[in-house]
Amino acid sequence: MSALLPPALGGAVYDRGYRPYEGARGGRAAGRWALWRLTVRRALGLRRSWRQKVLPWSLLGLVSIPAAVDLGVRYATRNTPVGEIGFEFLTFRDYVGVSTMLLLFVAVSAPDVICPDRHDRVLPLIFARPLTGDDYVLAKVGGIFSLVFGFSFLPQVLLYLGQMLVAEDGSLSYVGDHLDILWQVPLACAVLALFYASIAVAVASLTDRRIVGGLAFLGTMFIPSIIAGGIVAASEPDGTVLGVLNLLGLPLIVRDIVFEGRVDIDQDAGLAGVAGAGVAAVAFYLLLVGASLALLHRRYDEGRQ
Amino acid sequence: MTLAPPAVVPPPLGAPSPSLLRTEALTLTYPGGTTALHDLAMDVPRGSVGLVGANGAGKTTLFRLMLGQLHPTAGRLEVVGRPVADDPVGIRSRLGYMPEHDCLPNDQTAADLVATFGELAGLPAEAARQRASDMLDLVGLDEARFRPVGGFSTGMRQRTKLAQALVADPELVLLDEPTAGLDPMGREEMLDLVGRLATFGVSVLFATHLLDDVQQVCDHVVMIDAGRLVVAGPIDDLVARTGILRVEVGGRPDAVEAFTVALAAAGLRSTPVDAHVVDIDTAEHGDEVFDTVRDLVVAEGLRLYALSSRHHSLDELFVQEAQR
Fold first, then answer.
1. Residue B141 and residue B212 in one domain
2. Higher local confidence (pLDDT), A86 or A241
3. Which of residues 82-101 of B touch A (CB under 8 A)?
4. Among A57-61, B61-65, B273-277, which stretch is predicted with the lowest mean pLDDT?
C-alpha cells in the first residue's frame, strides 16, 4: 500500500491497487448455481425494495391459507366425530393446483426474472462468463420451478403434519397408512411446477417487457382453456379427448393420474370414460413442456445474443 | 515503403506459448454469406494491445470468437495459450469482457451487480463480494457502490462495466470501445485505468477506432480493415519503420516538378505538398537519403529552404496500409 497524501494533511488516501484472486473457482457448475440463486432472489424480491417484495410474498402467503385453516379446524374439532363437524377437509390431491395464487405468482415472477436481461442487454455479459444458453435456461426455469414446487409442497407438509398429529389412531399409524402420499405429493407438485415454469419462462422470453410477458402467459393459459371448455360442453355427455387442450386443467389431469391412476376424477374436463385420454394428457403435457424448453434453447443460444 | 504485415511463423497451435492471441487463417462467414473476418493470421504477445479498425471492421466479431460465442468457418484461434475450439465455454473463465453498448441492469446497486458477475464466473459468494468491493474501489466507485446503477452517469457506468470485467481476476480483459461516450476528462481517467491494468499482470485487448487512445496506453497494435489484417506489431517498431522527410525547395518556377522527377530517378517516392514543399517517403532508407537529397538539389540548380524529418502517426500508418 502506498499513501498518496501525507497524514499531516489530516488524512490519508490509500491506493490499494489490484490484488490477484488466488482462491477457489467453481467453474461452470458454480456459475449455473449462482444464476439459479439470483433468479430465486429476484423472484422473491430479496435485496430489492419493499415494493418488490409485497406481491410475491402476498401471493405465496395466500397459497398457505387453506392449509392453515384446514389444520386449525382439525385441531379445534379433534375430539368431535368426523360426521358431525360439517366441514369438508382438503385432500392432498385437492391441494395440488387448488390455488390460482401460484398461477398469478408465476405470471408476475417469470417475466421479472427473464425480461430485464434482454431489455437491459445484460445477456452478452452473462454469456461472457463460463455459462451456455442451456445453463441460463436451466437456471431460470429451475428457479421458478423451485419456488412453485416449494410453495405448493410446503403447505402439503403442513397439512400432512397436522393430520398426523390429530389422527385418532396415533401419528405412527397415520404415517403407515399414508406412505403413498410421500411420493405422490412431491411428484404431483413437480408436475405442476414444471408445467407453469417452462411455459411461463418460454412465453416471457418472447418479449423484453414484463407486463407483456405476464399477460401473454395468462392469455396462453386461459384462452385455450376457454376454447376447450366450449368443445367439452358441445361433446357432452360422451366427452372428448380435446379436453386436454384445457391448459389450466392439464396439470391437474396429470395429477389425477399420479394420485389415482385415472383421469378426470372430478368429471369436469370431459375426459371421463374417453379411451386413451390418460395417454393423450401425458403426451400433450410432455409436448408442451418440451416445446417450451426447445423454444428457450433456441432463444438463448449464446451465439445469437 | 513496403510495410507488410510481419511474417507470421508461429509455433504450431496447441504448443505452449506465451501469446495472448494467435490465429491461423481465421475466417468467419455468416450464414447470409457476409465474411466478417478473412484469413486472419497473427501472433500477439501478452501485454496491452490495441485492436484498431473502423466501425464494422470485425473487432467485436473477433471478441465473440475469442469468447467462444461464435465459431470460425475456417482456421484456428488460440487465446492465452489455449485453443478456443477445445473448450469454448471454459476459456471464458480466463477472460473479462467489457462490451461497447450499455448493458447494466438499472435496478441493482453497483456492489450487487459486480458481485453477481463474480459469482457467475465461478467465485464463491463471499469472495465475489470482497472482489466487487476491491474492483469498485480500483475504478473509483467506492463511495457509490451501494447506489443503483440506474442513477449513474455515463462515466460511472463505464467504470462499473470495467469493474465487472475485472472482478474474476481474468488473464485477459477484452475492452470494446471503453472510452465511447465519455467527456475528455472521463476519457483520460478511463485511459489511465486501462493503462494501469498491464502493470497488474492483466493483459488488455483494447478495441477502438481512436488511434490516439491506443498510442497512449498500448504497446502493441493490431489493425484490421473489412475483416482483413492490415498490420500488427509493437507500436514503437511500426512507427520507427516509417519516415517522412519534408523538403522545401525554390530557385526555379518548376522547382517541385523537377525535384520530384529527380527523386523518382534516384529511387525515392515523393508527394508534392504545394508549389515549394515535397514529402519524401524515407522508410527503408538510411541516413544516406539526406545526402541524396542534398546532391539532387545541387544537381537540379535548386535552393534548399528547409528540411525536416518525422515518423508517421498511427493514423497515417493505418490509412497508408489499408489503402495498399
1. yes
2. A241
3. 89-90, 92-93, 95-97, 99, 101
4. A57-61
